[in-house]
User: What shape does this take?
Amino acid sequence: MTAGFDFWDYVVFVAYAILILGVGLWVSRDKKGHQKNAEDYFLAGKSLPWWAIGASLIAANISAEQFIGMSGSGFALGLAIASYEWMAALTLIIVGKYFLPIFIEKGLYTIPEFVEKRFSTNLKTILAVFWLALYVFVNLTSVLYLGGLAIETIMGVDMIYAIIGLALFAAAYSLYGGLSAVAWTDVIQVIFLVLGGLVTTYLALNTVSGGEGVMAGFHKVWDTAPEKFHMVLDKFNADGSPNSNYLDLPGIWVLIGGLWVANLYYWGFNQYIIQRTLAAKSLKESQKGILLAAFLKLLIPLIVVVPGIAAYVMVNDPEIMTSLGEVGQMNTPSLEQADKAYPWLLQFLPTGLKGIAFAALAAAIVSSLASMLNSTSTIFTMDIYKQYFSKNASDKKIVNVGRVTAAIALIIAVLVAPLLNGLDQAFQYIQEYTGLVSPGILAVFLLGLFYKKTTNKAAIWGAVLSIPLALSLKILPTSITSFEWLAPWMHQMGLTTLLTMAIIVLLSYFEAKGADDPKGIPLTREFFRTTPLFNIGSFVIMILLAVLYAMFW
Assistant: This one.
């Protein structure tokens, strides 16, 4: 057993890289007699089938923050972190049934474009700037940092060179080909990330059991660390001491509180996620893709959380650590450095399989980078450049501006990413700081979609006030003892959303004297009618979720 890559690991990884670049560039080529236009570049010509949409949703979502960050959280606090994945399956169903019909009917390119049609150009611009800052300084930088951390841990490559390499890989096909290249390569990326993730889970559990198989390993993990298999955390430990993990996942409130803000914002109003559903051939095709993604989300904790828990058992078992030899002592994870768990596990994979698992990790990182780059360029080009700099720009000019925008965003992210060095449990960091922006955006969208009385001025005030409101709620528990109950950031996020919605409703009422806004969306029951396939699939997912939570409550 050796650390680092052997010859066949390099062969597997290089073959993966060539395959992704080849497919990306091939689908990006201009068809004879047809020059790529804005719809081709930003919405893949509205030609994606359901299976490509479902695969692309998962590939865009599953990144280093899941493989590394969520495995780290699995190591530190256990299966409870899987609520992000399992509740996302239910959220996807809600998005497919209630949000997508409105978005597709309006023929959107971007989520800010909906804001313009429902409210105003000013509010669209405010939210577009919010998103651009969030994508560049939180999403892109964190994915690059975690990817660089993984490559540094596994291969010994200096982090800055690893970050630059990942950036160039993602740019090589996504900048030229746009969403079409991103979506079609995502189908391949999903195969790699699921296969590689399952390989890592198998090897981790097999190692825990001493070679007696996966089920024996799972039973040993369960018996050794039963506290890691609670989906709903208690505020206090068995000895009466405060449970520090409760601040990140505050018990039952995860299921009925702030997590809904994070999930509805992410899956319903996040450009780099929702963009592939807007590129569907039809609404029904898009809803089938959503359903596929929801089923895949049920599987994700098996390949990103369970390995982290297995690593925790391995590190705390002297007999297993002795059997791992010198390799086991290299980059060993701890509760203080939990994000090392997944890269550490990859060291123990046999030659060849290590290349597959690393290709899976690279696939997760690169596909998310490509998706974020494409959506960043889409928002800037369609919502800012075309609006304020060149309303009559040609399709060729728009596509070129999109490519330049993505390149600039990537350069900024590469420069900022190393500054995150030393961060622990990066997944929680990303969720917490996204939570400063997401409540205001969610409040504006929910009321814009379903409350016809919402006015433009009220929505602008709500969006602008939500951030200082969120910051105030973040400071209160540390400065006033009576507000200690507000310490979990999920509570802060949920309360910020409710207060922002109350501000918007009250301001709308006083401004319009209770009358409907002229831009309010008229909705009927027929608008949300779905196919029997979607309904049956949704019920199956809800039943599976009920079973999972009953097993691991």
